């Protein structure tokens, strides 16, 4: 009986996390970062860097959410339900106000950001270029060793994604979900959701970035969030879900 309840809790958390992440991330800044970087660099490197950042962020968010479980479940359950309702209403309002080509601005913003990082990368390459000998052995050897393991593209994909995700809607959602659902289910579901979105961005690249209607995704997202808030009215806080 308790085993079944645990499995059900895990599945419920997994489904909740994966659906919420997909509607939060499609057409989001992190989606565009992966899409644009994958058009210019090695796709696997970009995917690995972005996924490491998103996986790490999901686990951190789950820990934050789980830490709140010291507070009696009744409170966290209703607070999280209220947050879902607020997120849902905000997403619906944003979506309805958006112009159909809303995502393009974000796309251009990310392109500019990546271009700036590229120029910085080129400058450091020039500085540490053939004139390496002059900078002394102490500075160049560790750097060369590092570059064998981690390419600058990997680091760029990781840092850009991590910073874009911090404080983002999907991070807050993961924290809220982990406070009320099975934390393992949320961690796995969240990571799989990110994997799907980032994988899609890396493979589809520009085509998806241009075809995707951020407006439609935002409206659907708002409905999904409201559905979670609404479902809480029928599930008691201590039903094991």
Automatic annotation (TrEMBL):
A molecular function (GO) term: calcium ion transmembrane transporter activity
InterPro entries: GDT1-like, GDT1-like_CS
Listed transmembrane segments: 6-23, 44-68, 74-92, 146-164, 184-204, 216-235
Localisation per UniProt entry: Membrane
Membrane topology, record value: Multi-pass membrane protein
Pfam families: GDT1
Main location: membrane
UniProt record, GO biological process: Golgi calcium ion homeostasis; Golgi calcium ion transport
This protein's UniProt keywords: Membrane, Transmembrane, Transmembrane helix
GO cellular component, as recorded: Golgi apparatus; membrane
Protein family: Belongs to the GDT1 family.
PANTHER family: TRANSMEMBRANE PROTEIN 165, TRANSMEMBRANE PROTEIN HTP-1 RELATED
Protein's name in the database: GDT1 family protein
